């Protein structure tokens, strides 16, 4: 098994961050300090449509993850264990799924993304597989993720290979072919101390139409990494610090993933996704922002601008529409908003 | 009150910020948890209105109690005329418990769970908090349920309660 070593962080910083000298990484926390660099663009959010509790519809249980394409938005409901497909005007095109281990059945969604043809790929870690559904809601195939263990997120390459993050492994990334055969293991994309808190490795792969790149984003700390199918990678620091919160890990939880935050208001990256050649990184919490925040980067990792967002715990974008998801018990609701990307990258 | 125990806390996954608790029984039974002033009052005959009692204690996790926030959805909330909290524990815990309550219950009346009410809960198989009791406007107990143990069961439970309260059979 070939273990890919990454380039030292200092070299990467120098190579990919134009203002790398201003970044001072604390090796214990991976927190880097720098002045406020975000260019916040105030958007005039005008809703296109909404579905769910705010419309007095009892559609969703615990909507967790979503991904968008030109066809609309796909939403994985971890409560009802269903996939919902809405078109760009909010019409429910189809829904699919129920609890179980058979074809078209699910036990626990951990991620949702798209292959190169726009088919939906749903990662069900508890069933140990990725299910592929076409644009019309027809189950195409399921592929085992059993070689990976308990994957926390997945990104597809244009050639069908699948890159997974695995929270409980030192070899953080695992690459399989399109049939689930393990091809490669790969370590974290920047140096980590052996005894570093696991939360500093928390992160996820970006969602969107499969290309030759996958984007990995950390929840706290450093920034984003672009990982190519051939294992080459490059990294980009966040434009602003994302300090780790005070967090107590519960060792009894699977993969030591569970625990509790000891203070509220932490700023955390919760998702990333791509649309065309734009990478979006979604943050929630204070003190960096009293509203959800979206950072935009180009395909080379260059920072573009930031948007203050409408309320929501999840967000995705495609073809001029931003989709936000409120997944609270009180009002689980999907909303769509018209928005334009920056004109020049 | 040591016999009434707090359900295990919801575990929050770093990546999902969500999770759930233990224990679920659904019971259709009689009255006994409503405050005396309500249970002795002349019942109304509007079958579309309901009363809610939550049995809780200071040791409950706010994440468990927040599972009951669905009662604050507009379609449900407008049909709930009164909300009460029964505190399984000493009266001095009132302030602490209030700080844990989900939105919509911040100003609900809190009363200490009486031993007769505790006996009733135990007879009906409920020894965990938080527990939800739903009464109709004739003061008949329709549903008594602990917080569902996982997201799927909670979704089924919420859908069933929503249909019961709103009278709308469609999801």
Question: Any key phrases for this structure?
Answer:
heterodimer; A: 345 residues; mainly beta; five-stranded mixed sheet; 32 strands; disordered N terminus; B: 171 residues; alpha/beta; six-stranded mixed sheet; two-stranded parallel sheet; 9 strands
Topology:
The complex is a heterodimer of chains A (345) and B (171).
Chain A: E1 3-4, H1 9-16, E2 24-25, E3 32-33, E4 40-41, E5 47-52, E6 63-69, E7 72-77, E8 82-86, E9 92-96, E10 98-99, E11 105-106, E12 109-114, E13 120-124, E14 129-133, E15 139-144, E16 151-156, E17 162-166, E18 173-176, E19 182-186, E20 203-205, E21 213-218, E22 221-228, E23 233-242, E24 247-249, E25 258-261, E26 268-275, E27 278-284, E28 293-298, E29 303-308, E30 314-318, E31 321-326, E32 333-338
Parallel strand pairs in A: 1-19, 4-29, 10-11
Antiparallel strand pairs in A: 2-3, 5-32, 6-7, 7-8, 8-9, 12-13, 13-14, 14-15, 16-17, 17-18, 18-19, 20-21, 21-22, 22-23, 24-25, 26-27, 27-28, 28-29, 30-31, 31-32
Chain B: E1 5-6, E2 12-13, E3 26-27, H1 36-39, E4 50-56, H2 62-65, H3 74-77, E5 80-87, H4 94-98, E6 109-112, H5 115-123, E7 128-129, E8 131-136, E9 141-146, H6 151-166
Parallel strand pairs in B: 1-7, 4-5, 5-6
Antiparallel strand pairs in B: 3-9, 4-8, 8-9
